[in-house]
Inverse folding.
């Protein structure tokens, strides 16, 4: 018992001496933490994450905004998300199915119908399941959303998370 106690005290003393030694290298500061979804936990994508093609840093998401209804039927309800890529493209996404009501899906489809990008043929989000089977249909579609269209569309944008300015984006992973 005396030997075990002595060994334990010797180990503790050695550890304390090593950590308080002036020759010990300073700890490398951890990179700043980026909350990848912010308060938008039901967002389908996170920051940074590749969205669309090509698989480059320019196609990584650098900002997620919550799309909030200002209409009387759904006041202040989150109806979807607006994703902004490094190259400036914006994409509209649905909330998870457990958070989407028929009214909010209709409101988000109205936004998509008015703002879908020229190359996007969908004017409404396709069904994610048919008779319980996943369809693999897209739940995020490219849009062009001018700032002056927010009022007429009955929506406002509220930031969820933004990639820190000046911080390099990681290499995209396929």
């Amino acid at each position: 018992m005396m030997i075990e106690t002595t060994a334990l005290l010797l180990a503790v003393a050695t550890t304390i001496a090593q950590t308080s030694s002036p020759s010990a290298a300073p700890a490398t500061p951890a990179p700043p933490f980026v909350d990848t979804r912010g308060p938008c936990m039901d967002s389908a994508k996170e920051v940074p994450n590749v969205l669309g093609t090509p698989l480059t840093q320019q196609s990584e998401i650098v900002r997620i905004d919550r799309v909030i209804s200002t209409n009387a039927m759904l006041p202040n309800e989150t109806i979807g998300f607006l994703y902004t890529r490094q190259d400036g493209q914006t994409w509209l996404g649905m909330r998870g199915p457990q958070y989407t009501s028929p009214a909010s899906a209709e409101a988000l489809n109205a936004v998509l119908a008015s703002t879908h990008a020229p190359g996007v043929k969908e004017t409404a989000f396709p069904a994610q399941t048919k008779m319980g089977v996943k369809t693999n249909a897209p739940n995020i579609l490219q849009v062009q959303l001018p700032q002056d269209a927010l009022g007429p569309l009955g929506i406002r944008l509220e930031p969820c998370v933004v990639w820190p300015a000046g911080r390099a984006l990681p290499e995209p992973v396929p």
Summary: The mean pLDDT is 82. The CA atoms of residues 20 and 92 lie 53 Å apart. Helices lie at 2-20, 102-115, 150-153.
